[in-house]
Amino acid sequence: MRLADRGRLTLAVLGIGCLTACGLPVDSEAEAGGTFTCLPAPDSAGAVVVDPLRSPSPELPVTVTSSDGAEVTVTDVSRIVAVNLNGSLAEIVFSLGLGDNVVGRDVSTTFAQAEQLPVVTQAHDLSAEGVLDLDPSLVLIDTSIGPPEVITQLRESGVPVVSFEESWSIEEIAPRIEAVAGALGVAEAGDRLVERTEAELTEALDRVRSDGPSPRIAFLYMRGTAGVYLMAGEGSGADSMIEAIGGVDAGSDIGIERFRPITSEALINAAPDVILMMSGGLESVGGIDGLVDVPGVAQTPAGRDRCVVDVEDGTLLSFGPRTGQIVLDLAARIERAE
């Protein structure tokens, strides 16, 4: 069964820059889903890693059509810069067994094998100087990264740049893997990675099914140092991750679409049993102690019970080959009381 047939984990891009301070409906009659306990990440979790295939032998040259319509011929994959907003491109390259060839990354690529590589992005922006200083033989990006003039500058310098469409849904995992593998000249390895990824995700989704009460979960995106306090809802992608582990997305349930600034009224009406966050976001507001000081949080079941699950930033929204494991880990952190 292909991943596209299991469309339960759609994750949309965190388009923070284009959000407006829209009002939130607060007339929902939220009902508690039961009693739940949020478990901490195990001490054995350590640094997140990817599981690479045996290193393939690229068959080059290959010519591919970039997402911007450019025909790009790839002749050398010995020095790869792989950057996009959610870190999935580098994750795929490493998973294909070519991690030793990667010389530059984005800020979201945080798994153990890549964390010492130079970062060449700031938010959505790519640094041409930072990339060229690494003497790359190939740059992989997607349409979440810009600005366009930097891409033009890199190509005019003679560096092949292959751009892909953004990938924020379960349906797009397999095509993304196949496209990246094709650009690297390792199509056969791409097929093997797709097969492994699909099998792991299918198993994970089957294992997390439950007949018990469904927790109401609110995904909060916070960057306290930047004054960013957002709640996710329908179409954000976080809603599908929550549904995949058997939860009810509390933001969607009160009518929020994508991401909206948090209000105390919205939080109280959403009445989440569990608050889901990125680890960096939770840290930026002072941990759970600081989170419950955010207006409205303490008045929710999750706030009263301090039921908060935080997931490492580079995994929660990645949509790469590790998605099945991310589903299992997230589900394991939320315990239904008897």
From TrEMBL:
<dbReference type="InterPro" id="IPR002491">
    <property type="entry name" value="ABC_transptr_periplasmic_BD"/>
</dbReference>
<comment type="similarity">
    <text>Belongs to the bacterial solute-binding protein 8 family.</text>
</comment>
<feature type="domain" description="Fe/B12 periplasmic-binding">
    <location>
        <begin position="81"/>
        <end position="338"/>
    </location>
</feature>
<protein>
    <submittedName>
        <fullName>ABC-type hemin transport system, periplasmic component</fullName>
    </submittedName>
</protein>
<dbReference type="Pfam" id="PF01497">
    <property type="entry name" value="Peripla_BP_2"/>
</dbReference>
<dbReference type="InterPro" id="IPR050902">
    <property type="entry name" value="ABC_Transporter_SBP"/>
</dbReference>
